[in-house]
Amino acid sequence: MSRLVRQFVFVAAAIFAIPHITFAQSSPSSSPPLDRTRLPIAEPTVKQITELDVRNTKPPARFQVTAPQGAPNVVIILIDDLGFGATSTFGGPIPTPTLDRLAKGGLRYNNFHTTALCSPTRVALKCGRNHHTANAGSIMETATAYPGNTGKIPNSVAPLAEMLRLNGYSTGAFGKWHETAAWETSVSGPFDRWPTHQGFDKFYGFIGGETDQWSPLIFDGVVRINPPLKEGYHFTEDMTDQAINWIKAQQSLTPDKPFFTYFATGATHAPHHVPKDWIEKFHGQFNAGWDEVRQQSYERQKQSGIIPANTQLPPRPEDIKAWNTLSDDEHKLFERQAETFAGFVGHTDHHVGRLIDAIESIGEMDNTLIFYIAGDNGSSAEGGMVGMFNEMTYFNGVQEKVEDLVPLIDKWGSPETFPHMAAGWAVAFDSPFTWTKQVASDFGGTRNGLVVHWPKGIENGGGLRKQFGHVIDIAPTVLEAASLPEPEVVNGTPQTPIEGTSLLYSFNAPDAPERHNTQYFEIFGNRAIYRDGWFARTIHRAPWNTGKQKPLTEDDWDLYHVHEDFSLANNLAGKHPEKLDEMKSLFMTEAAKYKVLPIDDRTIERVNPATAGRPDLVGSRTSLTLYEGMNGMMENTFINVKNRSTTIAAEIEIPEGGASGALLVQGGRYGGWSLHLRDGKPAYEYNWLGLERFLVESPTALPEGKSTVTLDFEYDGGGMGKGGVAKLSVDGKLVAEGRIGKTQGYIFSADETADVGIDNQTPVALGIGYGPAETKFTGKIHQITVDVK
């Protein structure tokens, strides 16, 4: 039975059973229409009751806000780091049967755009405004002090989830968030920009930009939880289970209430973690190499009409080598990288299929508006020329080598790697475009496949739509589909008008003129402007170039007429200089209007709060005292021990029989440090990117009773990521000393945390166990003090 039928039966039964109650919000004729432009909707004034005896009265109607009659359920599925040319639905080499199925019954959009980076796309998607309007000009971890880039979403851009919740929807978010300011991710809050304060009744997922799919950092609401203990556990499967259970329970208990589900996988962002049987499904399928795979996708795209027949395939970036010039070892390594990525895509689409099957099983498919967005940006080229066993090497400016990666081929994608593929594959999976994620000035970075499915609202399935669209168009599309006005005030704050354009006009009018006519793009200095079929752009930096860039004023601009040049293959700057000047001037106008200026092209330098100028939770404090039970502290909310001398003093108590386990750790298997007891002996281990380890350990175990274990690290100085000397003392007496050859200068991990008394997720050190249960300190910690110089 569909929700609409159940709603009719529910209301009819209630009216006939209790004829003296007026259901003001369910019956349009019984009261004035609700003012939905001011949220929350004001409760009506209840007439004063003067009668003494309740028996002589009739109860007033219960005030309840319900969604407009016939309002659809809404599901937004957002895949991470997946390029336009990856999926079978858009001509790519990787079968995506769920996306194919929804496209067959719905619509494909081949001219839909993102911002080219994760946080900006996600924020813009869910509020309907440009990413700089929402202060999300880059990822949260690189926010700065400038308007448009602060990382702090203003109350004046209320998210779609809050609009729907206050209009009678149930709302649930599952998977990746990455929209909370980096300094607001501790137990101290504020939680204003966490999912459950951004309109979602339910959240199950991770807060940051990525997580280990085998050992994720999960929050249920605002509470950190450990993943289920299950053999072969994978986060995508877990989040899908959670989403299915929530939707079914919500419809069971409140069948008259539509739901909004935001389903944002950590896949296919690095780390490319996927069960081995999914990798094996693609064994040998990428032996032709990235040039041939790209060419074959391009041919399929033309033959199927996904791209115009006159589309040209531009050359790949010059930095990327031709496949036929690579060595046998490079071929072997890169083929495995592609097989793993393809397995990750297939595995993800499979679990999306489970979600769709669940919605169908409860009879809700006909009136569920589904947006399946195949990528929050193009495929990622952050793996550089050879890929990475550990993605954190990229964020620390370390280049991995083929000879070190080849021995890891059989482990690729397993819990023993934190991998990313080479940039050549990113370009191939972005066919027919040239560039990738981070390049906001090329469609390889911004154009992503979109499928919309809504049987009740789409008359003829299987169509292709070519109108220009952008992620800021999704929120107004949902509002129009649900017959809801754009709110003018939300929770007491006047709203910045929505800047997107509803796509609903195109659902049943394939040739309708496009309505989104102007759109700027900017990420890390790569910038462009679109207007009425013209596109002007400059490629300021490649994703694999994280060092100092040339001055912004020296950038060369290109000009394209995209209605005739789908892939940006023919630069018309020389033929139409006046048009180019007009477009460049338009960019500056739009950039000033939407708080894009000043442009900041720095990348990993901005990970450091001091460099970026954003708030820092610990700030200028040089000492932090920690207590037992404090764990799950993300890197941006912990004292910064990188590139400086540090003293850690742990006041502990050893029980009879001795003790072992973690005292204080930061990071995980792929980088970090650990102060711990192993077989009762104090030790300090520095894990440099999972590539090298440095251990300083006492030769004797601690006696029963109180002790103070102190680690003094004397940093060499002279730049970032240098080494130093570690000295380990017990009650003021030196017990061990050793050299730490190198350190991580920028970041330990995107999702691993600092923990007192345990080592969450993956272990930093060898030999003290795996996870909270095994690494928990078996003595007592009174306090631990961290001092930095």
TrEMBL record:
One of its GO terms (molecular function) is arylsulfatase activity. Keywords: Hydrolase, Signal. InterPro entries: Alkaline_phosphatase_core_sf, Sulfatase, Sulfatase_N. Residues 72-482 form the Sulfatase N-terminal domain. Pfam families: Sulfatase (PF00884). Gene3D superfamilies: Alkaline Phosphatase, subunit A. Coiled coil: none annotated. It is an enzyme of class 3 (hydrolase). It comes from the Bacteria. Its EC number is 3.1.6.1. Residues 1-24 form the signal peptide. Belongs to the sulfatase family. This is Arylsulfatase. The lineage of its organism: Bacteria, Pseudomonadati, Planctomycetota, Planctomycetia, Pirellulales.
